[in-house]
Specification:
By secondary structure, the chain is an alpha/beta fold. It has two domains: 104 residues, Arc Repressor Mutant, subunit A; 345 residues, Aldolase class I (TIM Barrel, Alpha-Beta Barrel), CATH 3.20.20. It is 38% helix and 19% strand. The strands form five sheets. Strands 9-10-8-7-6-5-4-1-13 form a nine-stranded mixed beta sheet, sandwiched between helices. A three-stranded antiparallel beta sheet has the order 14-15-16, covered by helices on one side. α4 links the parallel β4 and β5. α3 packs across α12 and α9 runs parallel beside α10. The chain is globular and about 60 Å long. The protein starts with 6 loop residues before the first helix and ends in a 13-residue tail after the last helix.
């Protein structure tokens, strides 16, 4: 049965859609008492014990030339390129210097396997600054060992020659911020970019240079509906990216006041409409030959992400569903957050004034962090399995964590009985499997295992 045919379930469970669970525990739980010194200690203790563990280096650039009304990212809208240069040369480079100092002091050589430039808009950098940044990273990252180097692309700010330039500077994966191809939707979110524009960028030469190309789409935008997403997905299928992330938009005007501008002409799609839009997009992508990769991601057959899903190596995180080669993040830039195995989370300041102030004082710009306890680690893996693979294997979890799953999660399993009665999960002796309908409710089902969740689940 289609999710849109089950209005009662949508009404029943929609209030419990609290978190995406790109991290567990969620950021709200991380402690602001976690300091620069705590971060240094975490690095010095964790990495020597995990020398071979692959690392992703994430770098955040918090600048855009134009405001997109849907955006929750940390960014500053500016036409003043001197601000970008000041951030790069006088702060970001200094943060990298401090991190490298910690690594050298503790004789740590990291196994860097991936690099990811996010934003904001990393496409804001002019060639000179981009080359300077690459040269700086090469001082402590061996680029010969890098498998994936991704840059998030604003298609309005590049041309094919710029993409070729990226390739010449070791980039081999592109992630395009598409959101939607419907012109009315684009006007509402202040981001107009035609499919023809993207098509002109993806020349045969570019596709050959970049075999992995990702499109980010958003579900739940103003003026978006089932008919409009149908046409958008048609355009996406024509352009044939190898990977697609269809993320639900989060509306948070309490922290991003400008988001109310999206409602100047039309309200946002409600919970039912969002599910209908997602369902339409999902079915069209699957019928076009894409395979599902976790809750909201898709990949062409034999794409690295598709292969990692089949091998159960893929991981759902803040970058979407990733192939999982590098699950440890070392992150720099305002708002950037990292993680070390199942043991640590850490995040930099969002606000540039606090980020710059910390660096000026010779401190790593840490806003908050967390050292995970044993229970956190167990639940983190469970939440990831639900969000990525829609199932839990109790025997595997027993062996990995040295627990008796049924005893350890006796309370949670009792809550899941109601999900089972509603046809969202199948509970057997040694596994939990989300049904096709239940996959649409995977955040709510994952929420059952959230020890910090204050919702009284037995009152669902």
């Amino acid at each position: 049965m289609s999710v849109t045919e089950n209005i009662k379930l949508l009404k029943k469970y929609h209030q419990n859609l609290v978190f995406d669970y790109t991290e567990y525990p969620t950021k709200a739980i991380w402690s602001e008492k976690f300091s620069s010194e705590d971060y240094k200690k975490a690095i010095s203790e964790w990495f020597p014990k995990n020398k071979a563990s692959p690392v992703l280096f994430y770098l955040h650039t918090p600048f855009c030339e134009q405001l997109c009304y849907f955006c929750l990212c940390s960014k500053e809208i500016t036409k003043d390129y001197d601000k970008v240069k000041d951030y790069l040369y006088n702060y970001l480079f200094k943060e990298i210097d401090m991190l490298e100092e910690v690594l050298v002091k503790n004789k740590i050589e990291l196994n860097f396997k991936e690099i990811y430039f996010g934003g904001g808009s990393p496409t804001y950098y002019k060639d000179e600054e981009f080359v300077a940044l690459i040269d700086r990273l090469k001082k402590f990252i061996n680029f010969k060992n890098i498998d994936d180097f991704t840059v998030e692309i604003d298609p309005r700010r590049v041309d094919p020659s710029k993409l070729i330039f990226y390739k010449q500077n070791s980039v081999n994966r592109l992630s395009f911020g598409i959101q939607d191809f419907d012109h009315k939707v684009q006007e509402e979110i202040n981001r107009v970019q035609t499919p023809e524009l993207v098509d002109k960028l993806l020349t045969p030469e570019i596709r050959k240079l970049f075999p992995t190309i990702n499109f980010d789409l958003l579900i739940g935008l103003p003026s978006q509906n089932v008919k409009s997403i149908d046409k958008t997905i048609d355009e996406v299928i024509k352009l044939k990216p190898s990977q697609i992330q269809t993320m639900y938009m989060h509306y948070k005007p309490q922290t991003r006041k400008y988001m109310v501008r999206m409602l100047r002409n039309n309200p946002l799609p409600d919970f039912f409409d969002r599910k209908a839009i997602f369902d339409k997009a999902s079915k069209k992508l699957l019928s076009a030959g894409y395979n599902r990769a976790g809750f909201e991601s898709y990949a062409l057959p034999n794409d690295p992400l598709d292969k990692s899903m089949k091998e159960k190596k893929a991981v759902y995180n803040s970058l979407g569903t990733q192939k999982g080669e590098a699950i440890n993040f070392l992150a720099v830039g305002s708002s950037a957050h990292g993680c070390f195995g199942d043991d640590y989370y850490v995040q930099n300041y969002y606000e540039q004034n606090l980020y710059r102030e910390a660096i000026s004082k010779g401190n790593l710009p840490i806003y908050r962090g967390m050292k995970l306890g044993d229970d956190d680690k167990i639940r983190r893996n469970i939440v990831r399995d639900i969000r990525t693979y829609f199932n839990l294997n109790f025997k595997e979890l027993n062996e990995k964590h040295k627990i008796n799953f049924k005893e350890y999660f006796k309370k949670e399993l009792s809550f899941l009985k109601e999900f089972e009665d509603d046809g969202l999960v199948n509970l057997k002796d040694d596994y939990l499997q989300l049904t096709e309908l239940g996959e649409h409710f995977s955040p709510q089902i994952a929420c059952v295992f959230d020890a910090y969740n204050k919702i009284e689940l037995n009152k669902i």
